[in-house]
Amino acid sequence: MANSEEHVSIAVIGAGFAGIGLGVRLRESGFEDFVILERAGDLGGTWQANTYPGCACDVPSALYSYSFAPNPEWTRRYGTQPEILDYLRTVALKFGVLRHIRYDTELHEASWDDVHGNWRISTSRGTMTADVLVSAIGPFSEAQIPELPGIENFTGTQFHSLHWDHEHDLTGERVAVIGTGASAVQFIPEIQPAVGQLTVFQRSAPWIVPRLDWATSALERSALRRMPLLGKAVRGAYFAGIEGFGLVGFVDKRFRHPYEALGRLQLRRQVRDRRLRERLTPDYMIGCKRAIFSDAYYPALTQPNVEVVTARITAVGPRSIRTDDGVQHEVDTIIWGTGFGVPPQVFDRVRGSDGRSMGELYRDRPQSYLGTTVAGFPNFFTTLGPFGAAGNQSAIYMIEAQIRYIVDALKTMRDNGLQRIEVRPEAQQAFLREMDDRSRDTVWVTGNCRSYYQTADGSANAGLYPNWSFEYARRTSRFDEDAYLTSGVRG
């Protein structure tokens, strides 16, 4: 009996910025036999999932967009979630990617089949095989909620910022926000005027620097439409400005002082109360954790219905949160602003030739080659993999560099009739040694903080590329076949 199981050349997991961008470049290079598996009912990735009040990008829109699809119509300097999602839908439609996306299709497991030389993929909508598997899963795709004693006894409403409960009315409520990361910094000013009492539980104070956002005028948008070179110039200026933050990250930590001075000035200017200002002063070097751009966060915290709590949470009651200073804070709703699981749990579902999962490897020691391939995982590529993300540049810039590399690898396979490619373990080890050597004195490791930039024990860089992003783009501009084991001619 013939095997009727579906087979495709390329299966891509995720229809966010990476998956859509890869789909565009695959079609441009003559690849049509590919599918993009998306667990949600719409495209957009993190910009589809995150709908909390105030959700927006912290990279200027001119740079947080595809280089091949500039958008002169951004209404603000920083794109809001609805506008970014609309942009992604427009790109997917314009470049013919929509026909390749399969919605409501969640990956259950993907494992390499050494006998048949392909990937066996199980999803919520059936099984399939693919010659090549690409993970376009973003690093911020799964909510992380800490296990606090007594949380199961809480009788009020609780939700994570990733799963905002828009049906729940916060008006007049006693609301606890746990966590002060980028999402919390955005939604706190939005909900503060409506709630009765807002208690912000802060583990460590984030560095806040001026956002300098503004609405674009009709004249600006008209000029960008008429003069594409102007748009490229604006994009280049933002690129250079953001790239310069690498001076702090990996060149010399002494470059941090002007940036820290800017953050302290922002704090002093917006928070007059000395005691509150002390609680909001970071105790680590800027860049050790993600710095956050905001002009509205500090003013919200100074309002009379807001309290910032720095004491450690010890227990949760039916309608309260207790801290280690003995205070019991009465609350009706808990909003978790505690970030995301890194790596995403879905990495535990992708298994290589020896049966180990990407998640297991990542937890042992984040590893990859150029953030795009992994030894032991044949015909597998990833975007924003370990050491393929930048701490000083738009993620879209890095994603586009990886897409170029992946498509060039696929063209090499097609043109040379290769059945299997896998990065040589020695090439990956040499790359990881380079990453370790370059990371030893970076602010991400030695900046006196703990963050997802670090491995679980805090001793090493967990995956940021410790060099200029344009240098990364140069070294991924072409597929370096010599770094790979290649075999077979697919017949």
Notes on the structure:
This protein has 491 residues and is of the alpha/beta class. The chain contains 15 helices and 20 strands. 43% of the residues are buried. The model has no long low-confidence stretch (mean pLDDT 94).
Give the secondary structure arrangement, pairings included.
Blueprint: E1 6-13, H1 17-28, E2 34-37, H2 46-49, H3 81-94, E3 101-102, E4 107-113, E5 118-123, E6 126-135, E7 157-160, E8 174-178, H4 182-191, E9 197-201, E10 208-209, H5 218-226, H6 228-243, H7 246-251, H8 256-270, H9 274-279, E11 292-293, H10 297-301, E12 306-309, E13 313-317, E14 320-323, E15 328-330, E16 333-336, E17 350-351, H11 358-364, E18 380-382, H12 395-416, E19 418-423, H13 425-439, H14 443-446, H15 469-475, E20 484-489
Parallel strand pairs: 1-2, 1-6, 2-3, 4-17, 6-18, 7-16, 8-9, 8-16, 9-12, 10-11
Antiparallel strand pairs: 4-5, 5-6, 13-14, 14-15, 19-20
Helix pairs in contact: 1-12, 5-6, 12-15
